[in-house]
Write a structure and sequence with these properties.
It is a single chain. With 79 residues, this protein is mainly alpha-helical. Helices cover 53% and strands 0% of the residues. It contains 3 helices and no strands. It has helices at 3-14, 36-50, 64-78.
Length: 79
């Protein structure tokens, strides 16, 4: 697993109390029981952790693997 995915898992476990077995690449935020406010908070935490801004790029991101790929792309764009 990538450092990005490991970081997401850590945030989801610590802040949102997600169970380890739920944190698979194909898991969705719906699967994790996150409401709209949780999603916003999670996105802000990811932005802060990776020094990026998502903007409207989060539209269409459904799985943790898709979020990981978006972060990697954003980080690459910033470099």
């Amino acid at each position: 697993m990538s450092d990005i995915f490991d970081g997401m898992r850590q945030i989801l476990r610590q802040r949102f109390h997600a169970a380890e077995e739920q944190l698979t690449p194909d898991a969705t935020l719906d699967d994790l029981g996150m409401d709209s406010l949780d999603r916003v908070e999670f996105a802000l935490m990811l932005e802060q952790a990776h020094c990026i801004r998502f903007g409207s790029d989060l539209d269409g991101v459904r799985t943790l693997a898709q979020a990981e790929a978006l972060i990697a792309r954003k980080k690459g764009d910033a470099e």
